[in-house]
Amino acid sequence: MAKIMNGKKIAEEMKARLKKKLEPLEEKPSLSVILVGNNKASEIYVKMKERACNEVGIKFNLYRFPKNVQEDEVIDFIDRLNKKPDVNGIIVQLPLPGHIDEKRIFETISPLKDVDCFHPSNRWKLLIGLEDIAPCTPAAVLEILKKYGIEVGGKNIVVVGRSYLVGQPLAIMLLNRNATVTICHSKTRNLAEHTKKADIIISAVGKPDLIKGDMISKNAVIIDVGTSRVNNKITGDVDFKSVEKKASYITKVPGGVGPVTIANVLWNVVKCYEKQTG
Ligand code: NAP
Fold it and tell me: How far apart are CA 230 and CA 178, in angstroms?
């Protein structure tokens, strides 16, 4: 039976450390979140970020725009936040409605306030191994592996999913740590052929039961980033029942990558704050 990697516990420790660090500050760091439309999952994620900010003493501001807002209006608003000295971190909650060009949004967020590491200049830094502001979910995956003493250097690691938010930056960060990385996606012909050869599988897709026990090697390490809602319950990409019998380590959904991602959001706000205040 696989050992469960407890993301919730790691996140609690990270938040406790941050709370202590912020206690002596008279002027607390602040996070501004832009939410366009009323996507149910986004509403939940934003609420979780707000709660976490309150827990550690980060000021939180939410700015809502209707689903049909013009792209230029959002761009102008981000520009204004960029210029405000009392705004330290900016998040534009994804997904955005189809008529808004995400790439324009990513380019507009000031690199100094870019909590999600979306800005091209921060991505370029990631590519060359400078990870001062690392994307929150990929960094959460690495934090969990580190906490459980799982070395990534030299390992065969399959990342399932290649999004700008998770799969792609995660693959880069694993390469930066000398892993041998295979990236799979929706056009990959035989997913199991790749996953069976992996020491570590990280799935970031959003399809329940995509990874099953017969697709992994004995003692593989399994990280489940996927989050889907099935019958009003949150579930990951991994068929937990069949996989936990064969794997050596596994994360659960909920309680795995999610809480550590939120803790990384908080830490990134403070890193942005420190960059701005010197
Ligand atoms: P996304 O932008 O929809 O990307 C999904 C990726 O999965 C794409 O690269 C897609 O391939 C690939 N894919 C789709 N079907 C596949 C299949 N059958 N086999 C292999 N690959 C397949 O999603 P995302 O933003 O990266 O998020 C991925 C999942 O992680 C979602 O469930 C999301 O809710 C969750 N998530 C969790 C956290 C957390 O903190 N726990 C944070 C962020 C996201 P193509 O590129 O070919 O389309």
Answer: 36
> What is residue 199's predicted lDDT score, i.e. its pLDDT?
99
Question: Is residue 95 over pLDDT 90?
Answer: yes
Q: Global pTM?
A: 0.98
**Beta partners for residue 203, in sequence order:** 160, 224
Which helix or strand (DSSP H or E) is residue 63 part of?
Answer: strand 59-65
CB of 137 closer than 6 angstroms to any ligand 1 atom: yes
Instruction: Write down the pLDDT at residue 278.
Output: 81
Q: What confidence category does residue 141 fall into, taking pLDDT thresholds of 50, 70 and 90?
A: very high
- Out of 10, 183, 185, mutate this one to test ligand 1's pocket (max ligand atoms within 8 Å of CB): namely 185
Put residue 190 in one of left, alpha, beta given phi > 0 → left and psi -120 to 50 → alpha. beta
Helix (H/G/I), strand (E/B), else coil: 274: helix
pLDDT tens by residue, 30-76: 999 999 999 999 999 999 999 999 999 999 999 999 999 999 999 99
In the reported structure, the alpha carbon of residue 160 is separated from the centroid of ligand 1 by a whole-number distance in angstroms of 8
- Tell me whether residue 103 is exposed, middle or buried, using C-beta atoms within 10 angstroms of its C-beta: 0 to 12, 13 to 18, 19 or more: exposed
Q: In whole angstroms, what is the distance from residue 107 CA to residue 120 CA?
A: 6
